[in-house]
Amino acid sequence: MAAAKVTASAAAPATRVSAVFRSNQELTRLARSGQLAAARRLFEEMPRRNVVSYNAMLSALARHGPLADARRLFDEMPRRNVISWNVMITACSHHGHVTDARELFDAMPARDDFSWTLMVSCYTRAGELGLAREVLDRMPGEKCAACYNAMISGYAKNGRFDDAVTLLHEMPVPDLVSWNSVLAGLTRNEGMSRSVQFFNEMPEKDLVSWNLMLEGYAGRMNEARELFDRMPERNVVAWNAMLAGYVHLSHMEEAYKLFTEMPDQNSISWTTMVSGYVHAGKLQEAKDVLNKMPFDSVTAKTALMHGYLRSRRIDDARKLFDGLAVRDAVCWNTMISGYVQCGMLDEAMVLFQQMLNKDMVSWNTMIAGYALYGQMPLQHFMHMRRDSKRADWSTYACCFSACANLAALHVGRQFHSLVVRSGHISGSFSGNALISFYAKCGRILEARQVFDEMERHDIVSWNALIVGYASNGNGADAILVFRKMEANDIRPDEVTLVGVLSACSHAGLIDEGLHFFNSMTKLYSLKPVAEHYACMVDLLGRAGKLREAFELVQGMQMEPNAGVWGALLGACRVHKNHELAQLAAEKLFQLEPRKTSNYVLLSNISAEAGNWNEAEKVRFLIKERNVHKPPGLAGST
DNA sequence: TATGCGTAGT
Q1: What does the DSSP 8-state code read for residue A492?
Q2: What radius of gyration do chain A's Cα atoms show?
Q3: For tag attachment on chain A, is the N or C end more exposed, with fewer CB atoms within 10 Å?
Q4: In this structure, is the CB of residue A266 within 7 Å of any atom belonging to strand B?
Q5: Which domains does chain A have, with CATH numbers?
């Protein structure tokens, strides 16, 4: 043995190096495609490993395994280079472990442009824009464009367009990616009128810019088509955006026509078709498309699995799941949630325990499932959560939000006592979730008690209490808390104002509401967003001032969203304004073509107005557009 | 060879 080793190393170091090289390539491939088990096996079997082997294995674990495993490998590595550190930071960032990411960033011996960019995007992803900006500003020398872009898209995603544009102009050479980041924020959050304006002002445009605009027109196919025809060139992404538009409207004939006309279809085009048929309730067609699909795609199979599960065809779904070569978190969660919705909690639990990379959705699904069926093996969950100790606050937060959404007061109380015993109450995360939980369950006094017992209050704590009072119809107390918050020198944010405005609305404080709304910008330098307009429409609507409400909507700087039209529609119902209801409903159907409650509301308004023809027409629309009731309420189908 | 994901699935 020893002799053979000596000969090998003396004979041809070059071949040995290339063997490691080849193994590394294979390892990288397995890591990329998510074949974690195979990657592990190869890594274990490799007679020699270099830093690249370790990095490849680390990135496989970072992307597809539990964070703890990645960390263990990172700590065991004989040698690390800057990429090892960067991969580890990425892993922490993806799992929401921002503090760990920062500790690594501070500890690393040398940083490259990548590291700085990673840290900025880690913070923006967590909504910590201030900290992200500090990192960007601290970056020595000439800052790279990617780092600026991470910050710009962080601002844009959070609706801070002025900051995004300001930073864009501070860049030595703003590239197209920077412009496109802002445009992406606009098309996804602000509606199209502002996007069009920005798009026209862009110094140059590429395919990404055009495609973002197309994506923004989703469901408004006349406008989309017009833009599509105007494009100087089209790639598969553009075609896919058009396809998604038709699919979004459940116009599957048109989608299919487009699909056959496309110059080339990629895996996303096929997946879009599969999911389109699934949402249209056409499972056979979905299955046919999937079978013809020349790519192996977890995403497409997950879509069909979802369809089966919605029709309670558990065995068909499970067969698909078992046949998957690569399983990511989404497909696990889909299968687990399918079991939960069918009341098969034991099966759900078995899968949940087998799942390696559980995320928030997995935990939420299981906890909500047990809460739904009135059981909750609390200790069991807490034991299981040991594998990622540091995320304990998030477990509690997610328990509380599950309980709150289900109004599971009793179970939530049990969690509360567990939190107290485990000492996690001091952190504001679980405390804030607890406030919201009690408030959502209508126990505002208990919410208040939690708030009073907390050591420190951040903006979220104050907001939770204000919104809590408001949603429980106690507008006066909400405003009292708001005044106290101001007295404590805490600067209100957008959420605070949503709470305050809805408090005024619930309490019938019209003048106060108008005052807060009109002085938002001046007093708190907050620009009203769609949610604030929705509150004001609600406020004016409740007071019977429908005309003022409608004028407010027409004067909006941004595209009114579904919340705004929904508030108007609700007000129309109370005050029996049939014409305006019709208009608001039309807008809602465009924005949320699949939401049953909108159709039902309009149908009811028409019926109450004695307009039976109209009511019948709306019911027909529901059938024609294949609008589905949400799963769980669907009964036996 | 390894790292900041334009479009798809919970």
Answers
A1: P
A2: 27
A3: N
A4: yes
A5: 26-110 (1.25.40.10), 533-637 (1.25.40)
